[in-house]
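Sample entry (158 residues):
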Amino acid sequence: MAEKQQDHPNINKNIHPPFVALFYIIVALVLGRIVITPLVIPQVLRYIGLAFTFIGFLFGVGAFIEFRKARTTLDPHGSVKSLVVSGVYRFTRNPIYLGFLFMVIGFPLNYGHFWGILAAPFFVTTMNRLVIEKEEAYLEKKFKEQYAGYRSRVRRWL
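Predicted structure, serialized as tokens:
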């Protein structure tokens, strides 16, 4: 029974990746409002920001589809039933978090702020330390050589 309770990543229950991404998006937007820069974002960059946001959303949808096919959980705090390596998972081990990164950059850029670009490395560091490293340790323990092989073939982000 105790082993069953241990079958999940050791991620703090108060850490929720969508809220981490939202936090960095809000920080970027607030900084864009209170720190006035002489740089004007050309309209083409705003459209690129919108495209980044949409691409980020598509990464999430692609991951959702693959998780549903595998009949396993999307919850980073939950127990997974199988290792998902198909679809968008052939290109990145963390397509949902990569999608969030695209949104952290794209959403503020669409609103005319460069702050999302500056927030991006902090978002990546936060996700690596608080979530991804713990997920990877869990997957390696649970799936052993299968995960080790996958990890050697596919990069963490891109």
